[in-house]
Design brief:
The protein is mostly helical. It has helices spanning 8-29, 37-45, 53-60, 64-76, 98-122, 124-135, and strands at residues 80-85, 88-96.
Amino acid sequence: MDGGHRSLPQLLGEGRKWFDDALLAALEAAGAEQVSSTQLQLFAVLDERGTTVSELARRMGVTRQTAHKAVHTLVAVGLLEQAPDPSSARRLLIRRTPKGRRAHERATHILDGLERVLAARIGERSVTELRALLEMPWGEPPEPAAPED
């Protein structure tokens, strides 16, 4: 790739980093529990009923070990808890604690503010269009093309 053209994945990653960096800075300024970008991502993909570590890893696109480490760090600081899965005695569900729900609500409020900042910078219409485009179903990734002879 030439140095002047950044790929769409790079641009999406930079946008994600902008939000993550601003969120982490705002949380730190508010005196909130210190978390990493991986831990932020885990919180974002966690559903209210609870989620297994394996499913969290799949949603995050990381190894099970990475998700497990993030979960245990957040359990240790009281933001997450492990609970038996009612559908399987062998599985544990990861859920937010009351403290974790408050932290998630605070982060959601901060992210809403960051969207308003972005809208002020690039225009409300641009943010609305960007959201609509990103919410469109992309379908499954394409199959690799057969090598040409």
